[in-house]
Amino acid sequence: MLAKKLVTAQKRGETRALCLGLGMVTCSMMMYFFIGITIVPFYTKSVWTTETVCKVLKANIKDKVLCPNSKGSEDEDIFPYPCLQVWVNVTASGQEVMLYHTEDTLERNPKCSYVPDKLENSKEVKARIETVANNFKKYQIFPCYYDPGGTQTNVILSRLYPPKGLLFLFLWPTLMFTGGCLIIVLVKISQYVSALSAWQ
Question: What is the pTM of this model?
Fold first, then answer.
């Protein structure tokens, strides 16, 4: 009777462990799919792939401009802010080009190097842009990214999704997938050993 209860408990434990392993594998596959349809296209679409050195030539703050409507944006997303324009000399080509913060900055407003997030306090927006401008004047030489194919003549300060960041995003679903597979394999080994012991 006791042996029968132990076997039943063991089967329940194996079933739960198997469900856990399958659940982890399923969740990891869903995470892979989500990353693949949301983040990977932005990474592959970016043409600013080669790192070089940029030297600031001038950083000017012009009059306030309106943040233009991007795709799918609402009217309340339009807000005025000082327009910072940063011009740099690119070491790779020797050209004088405009610097943008990220790929998204160019899409949101090609006239400005930096587009702040919408904030209720306009003084805070102005202070942030002045801080960014002062940083460019203080640190005049820094790494930046350019388009080696020549499609885009301008450069960006940082990529939204660099290769290291993309690998880090894939790290967690990979660990979950490996853990799930390991649990399933251990359960199957346990079942095989139990069957072999019962047969003997």
Answer: 0.70
